[in-house]
Write a structure and sequence with these properties.
The chain has 383 residues and is of the alpha/beta class. It is 27% helix and 27% strand. It has helices at residues 30-41, 59-63, 76-88, 120-130, 151-160, 225-231, 252-260, 273-285, 326-338, 355-363; strands at residues 5-7, 10-12, 50-53, 70-73, 97-100, 109-115, 134-145, 164-166, 173-178, 195-198, 210-213, 242-246, 265-270, 291-296, 308-313, 318-319, 322-323, 339-350, 367-371, 375-381. The strands form five sheets. The protein has a seven-stranded mixed β-sheet, with helices on both faces. The protein has a seven-stranded mixed β-sheet with strand order 14-13-12-15-18-20-19, with helices on both faces. Strands 1-2 form a two-stranded antiparallel ribbon. The radius of gyration is 22 Å and the shape is globular. It starts with a strand and ends with a strand.
Length: 383
């Protein structure tokens, strides 16, 4: 596989984070190349404040580093990949400003480049947050693979920023062109995010409790059936445990454990800035007693080995459209390192994913706690 990206500004060798020589997924795709090629071929003026939203592994801002862009991302891993790719390309420190989706956006945006995210809600939220900074002269170009750009995607650009059209497809990628028509603040529609709802009954300690979701969090407008099943089969409290809600999402699982055991110390971890903000908001909205920590990071990296009693995990099996078990394997490996002897990892997953085989390979054991036609809850003990 060609591991070099040819751009109008030279060749790059961007990688994902954490870097794994066995990883076959590239750190860029045809939509990134299409956008960069368009900017150069059409001599698009990259003036003033250039903002790049949703740059998945930093390939776009690395190529455009000479224009001192601002990157806005929801992903800790993407931000770390960007740091590494900028350093690898010899870009001077500070040439690219790295912001998260939870940071205040720039006050003025002259060029807005948008890598369309998987989540339509996240796109809506980010366009809403950036709209006050966009002016009639702002150049707005979006990019994505054809399968990622839908009528609803174009309607969001149109409704929030202005008239929108698309390009012809090239290598299964497409561009979005938007002509901003700024709306005065009193007339601008309110951002619906974050979104809150109450949980139904039958979920143990969190029954009837409030869940707060920032845009882009998995199943942000409802409780997904996998989490519902997990909540119905969580381990009993044993007093004063150190618990990790790994890949916490909106934090409902960790909040349930904290409500069941007020003496527990719960660490909420996710690589999504939106998710960790949701988990903290959910925890605080319910006035949960006890101690909690909220951390954006690469799984359990940085958590001392042997310091955790219980890890609860609903691992993702997609990485930007690609189906992969790499994330789950790294989560399981990190959990085993962080757990004390006798500590437990509890996992919820689709039956067909075969997580029991991975757990047996890693822990030497795997117990089926509960199952239904779609999901299994598994327990592995560190011995």
């Amino acid at each position: 596989m060609n591991d070099r990206m040819t751009t109008p500004w030279g060749e790059l060798a961007p990688t994902r984070f954490p870097e794994d020589p066995r990883e076959r997924l590239r750190a860029w795709d045809a939509s990134d190349e299409y956008l960069l090629r368009h900017l150069a071929d059409q001599d698009v003026p990259l003036f003033g404040t250039v903002v790049v939203v949703g740059d998945r592994w930093g390939a776009l801002v690395t190529a455009l580093a000479a224009h001192r862009p601002v990157q806005i991302t929801d992903s800790y891993l993407a931000q770390e990949a960007t740091r590494a790719n900028l350093a690898r390309a010899g870009v001077e420190p500070g040439a690219v400003q790295l912001l998260t989706t939870q940071d205040p956006p720039p006050g003025r945006v002259d060029v807005l480049l948008v890598r369309v995210p998987r989540s339509l809600a996240l796109l809506e939220d980010q366009l809403q947050r950036l709209a006050p900074a966009v002016h009639e002269g702002t150049v707005v170009v979006g990019t994505g693979m054809v399968k990622e750009i839908h009528t609803s995607t174009l309607q969001l650009f149109e409704r929030i920023l202005g008239p929108t059209r698309t390009s012809l497809a090239e290598k299964k990628a497409r561009l979005i062109f938007c002509t901003p028509k700024p709306v005065p603040s009193p007339e601008r529609a309110a951002n619906p995010w974050p979104y809150s709802y109450e949980l139904p009954d039958g979920l143990g300690p969190v029954s009837g409790r409030t869940v707060v979701n920032h845009a882009g969090v998995f199943c942000a407008d409802r409780l997904d059936i996998g989490t519902r099943f997990f909540l119905q089969h969580l381990p009993g409290s044993s007093g004063g445990q150190r618990v990790v809600d790994l890949g916490c999402g909106n934090g409902v699982v960790g909040t349930a454990m904290a409500l069941a055991d007020p003496e527990a110390e719960v660490l909420f971890v996710d690589e999504s800035f939106q998710a960790v903000a949701s988990a903290e908001a959910t925890f605080k909205a319910n006035g949960v007693p006890g101690h909690a920590e909220f951390r954006v990071g690469d799984g359990l990296a940085g958590v001392p080995a042997g310091s955790v009693d219980l890890v609860l995990n609903n691992p993702p099996f997609h990485s930007h459209q690609a189906t992969t078990d790499t994330t789950a394997w790294r989560m399981f490996t990190g959990a085993r390192r962080a757990l004390r002897q006798g500590g437990e990892l509890w996992v919820i997953g689709n039956r067909h994913l075969g997580y029991h085989l991975k757990l047996r390979r890693l822990f030497g054991n795997s117990e089926l706690v509960a199952s239904d036609p779609k999901f299994v809850v598994l327990k592995a003990v560190k011995r």
